[in-house]
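Consider today's protein:

***
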Amino acid sequence: MSTPFTRRDGTRGVSESVLLRQSWKEAGKVHTNTVASLSKLPPAQIDVLEAVINHGATLTGGATLPAPVLGAGRTHGGVAAVAALIDQLGLPGMIGPACRQRDLILGLVAARVCHPASKASQVTWWADTTLGADWGLDGATTDEVYEAMDWLLARRDALEDHLVGRWLKDETSNPHGLVLCDLTSTWLEGAHCPLAEYGYSRDGKKGLPQIEFVLVCDPRGLPVGVRVFKGDTADPGAFPDIVAGIRDRYRMSQAVVVGDRGMVTSKGVEALTAAGIGWVGALRRSQITALAAQKGPFQPSLFDERGILTCTSDEFPQERLIVCYNPARAEAARTLRQVLVEKTLTLIAPIGARVDAGRLVDPARIGQAVGRVIDRYHVASLIQTDIREHHLGYGPDTPTIRQAEALDGLYVIRTSLEATDIDDAGVIATYHNLNNVERDFSWLKSIDLQVRPVRHWLAGRVEAHLLICLLGLIITWHLRAAWKPLTFTDEQNPTPSIPARPARRSHAAHHKTATRTSPDGQPLHDFHGLLTHIAGLDRHPITYHTPTGPLTIQIVAQPTPIQAEAFRLIGAPIPQTIKPAR
C-alpha cells in the first residue's frame, strides 16, 4: 500500500507498507480488516509468506508444509483503547520526558483503569497484555515501579501545572474560573505511614487508620489536582491549604471556589477574601435556622415559580444568599421524620410497660433504659420524656417537630458573586456541580479505580499512588464520555427546568434502560462490562512454516461491531501494536 506524504522541506514522497488483510462480505457490503503489518519483514520472507497464504506451498518431492500454529494470545483491546486516549490527551508530555520511569508510570495508569489492583498484581498483569510487550514492561520489578513513583512525585507540580492550564484555566469551558473541591477519606493497610491517623471514616471503616484527600476539579468534574492530608484532618483544616494552592500554585487571579457547607465555612470565607478569591457554598442547618428566625419563616408563597428567594443578612456581609425550596424534598423529609419518630416510640413502649407493671421503678434506671434506645434513629430531640419514680411519660415533641418541618426542603446557597456576573439559576447550577465531584469519588474509590485500600507506608508513595489514580480518573472520565452511546448513561445531560430541583433522566435514557439496546439495536453494557468486552479483543502470534524456516507474525482478532464502534467513538483505529508514548 502506498501512502503519499510531505516532508518538512516541502518535498513529497511515498511511504510503502505491506499489510496482511482479511476481507469478507456481509449484507452485500465488503468489509476489510487489517490483520497485521508486514512492512518490517525482509522482502524475501514477505514473498514466501504470500505464497504460503495465497497458494499454499509444497516442498521438493510433493511434501506439504505444516499448518500454521496459533500461539497464546494477549489481551489487547482495553489497553489499546487506554493507550490511544493517553496519546490523544498528551499525558506523556505532561508527565515528563521520555524515559523508563515515564513508561512505567503510564503502564500503571493503564493498569489502574483496566486492572485496578496492588502494584505487585499489576506488574504481573502487564505480561498478559500487549502493553507489556509493546512498551517493554514485561519483566519489570516492583522496585522499578517504586522508583518510578518517586520520580513522578518529584514532577507533581509540573504535572498539575499542565492539567490546570489545559482544563481549569480554559476560558471557553470555564469562563468564571470555577474550582470545585471536596474532601473524602480512605483507609490504609498497616499503621506505619506518617499520614495514617484515626478520624471520621467516610467509608464506614471504623477502627482503621486512614488518610484524607481533596480532589480539585473543573465544573464538569474533570479532575486536575489532588492533595493528601493526615487522616484526622477535617474539611476546615484542609481548606487553607487549598486556598493557598489555588492562589500560589495555580496562579488563578479570577478563581471562584465551589465547596460544600463543610468547606466554605466562616473561617474559609475569611481566607478566600484575604486571597481575593470568590466562592460558592452553602449554609449549615443551624445557620439556616438562625436566618429563618431573623427573616421570619420562609413560607412557600414567598418563593418565585422556580423555588428561589434571594436575600442578604448582616451575619453574612457582602454575600448573596439564595434560598431554594424543593417541595418534593420537603415531603420526603417529613415522611422520613414521622417514620423514625414512630419507630423510636415503639422502642420506648416496652420500657413504659415495665414501669407500669412495677418492674422498673428507679428514675435513674428508667433514664438509662430510655437512653439506650431513644437516639437509635437520631431523633431524640423530637421526643418528649417525663421520668419520675414509678412513672414514664413519652410522646412526640410537637412544637420542635413543627419547627423542623418549617425548614424541610430548604437549602441556602451563599456566594460572593454579583448578580451581574452570574444569575441565581447559574449559582444554583454551579453549586449542584459538586455532584460531579461526588461522582468522581465513587469512580475513584470503588467503582472504577479502587484507590482503596492504600498499601504504601511512605508518605511520598501514598501521594504518588493518588497521582496515578488521578491520571487514571482523567482517562476514565474521557472514556465514559466517549462511550455514552454504548452504555446506559444519559447522553443528553438534561438540565432541570426548575433550578432548585434535581435533573431527571431523559426519555431516551429511560428507553435505553428498558430495552437494554441502543437506537441501532446494539446491546448495551455498563462501563465495566463494555471495558471487559473490549479487552476480549486479543492479539495472537501465528507461526507459518516456510521453506526457509518458521516465520511468526502478530495478528489481532476480528473485532465485534461493539469493539469496532468503541474505537471509532474515541477517534482511534484498532492498532496492531501499541506505539510507545510520545
Observations:
- The two ends are 25 Å apart (CA to CA).
- The mean pLDDT is 88.
